[in-house]
TrEMBL record:
SUPFAM superfamilies (alphabetical): P-loop containing nucleoside triphosphate hydrolases
Gene Ontology terms for molecular function: nucleotidyltransferase activity
Entry keyword annotation includes Nucleotidyltransferase: yes
Range of residues in the leader sequence: none
Source taxon at top rank: Bacteria
Name under which the protein is recorded: Nicotinamide-nucleotide adenylyltransferase
One Pfam family matching this protein: AAA_28
Amino acid sequence: MLCDFARTYCDELTVLVCTRPSDPIDGALRATWMRELVPNVRIVHLDRDVPQEPREHPEFWPIWREIMKNVHPEPIDFVFSSESYGGRLAEEAGARHVPFDPDRLAAPVSGTKVRAHPYLFWDYLPPPVRAHYVKTVCLFGPESTGKSTLAKRLASHFHTIAAPEYGRTYCEIFGTYCTADDLRNIVKGQASLEAAAKRRANRLLILDTDRLMTALWADMLLGIRPPDLDAVPEFADLYLLADIDIPWADDGTRYFPGDAARQRFYRICREELEKRSLPFEVIGGDRDGRLKMAADAINRHFPELSGG
């Protein structure tokens, strides 16, 4: 809100994003967030281990006087701040101080509180920041094990959204015969779908599948896994491996009805999770049993989410 207030107040705005190399969130990423959140303003990223408050260093004011001269050599008319030291900072810059909500009435939260408890203050996080903090749970396993139905029910249970299986959409449109290039297109679509969904999810995002699952589909469909499909850049925070203890059903986009093929598919799914040391739990039983097992697993793995 401070930046929106400031860019409405003045004709040209410079936002100084101050980070330290030791910060828990990469400074370059924070600067990227600001460029998205306040477009058409000048964003200056200062990534140096400098004091952030006067009490941190006896030379705080000379240090920051020099910083302001270097990053903004042009005359400064206004300094916008919600902090108690805003007036002195404006004085050092030769500018007029414009305070904004120092009592935190419009936004009763601080950056420090948000970083300490992001899920508690989720409603104050803008979309790109939500995408950074959101936890992902991927439903993993062979076809026809109730994953899509369970994804929708889990999303409803946790008041969030589910990212559907892009491969299903792809095969419904282009046919079920898939080459390695088709699987690459599915991977790209799945990654883009997940990235978009992360920005809208409520603390938790349910994935009907993920890019690792597509790599296993290459094993099953092609008998070989191309190296680029095996090089999965990002994994879910938790995998729920769906057991094959329910009957196979044909929905028009499925491939392996035989027991031997289902068992092999399940085996390579489990072996893949174990080989990569990814956190997972097996989910089985009827519809309601699977929902309860999945919800209980999520609550155990992410106790911090229940505080929001």
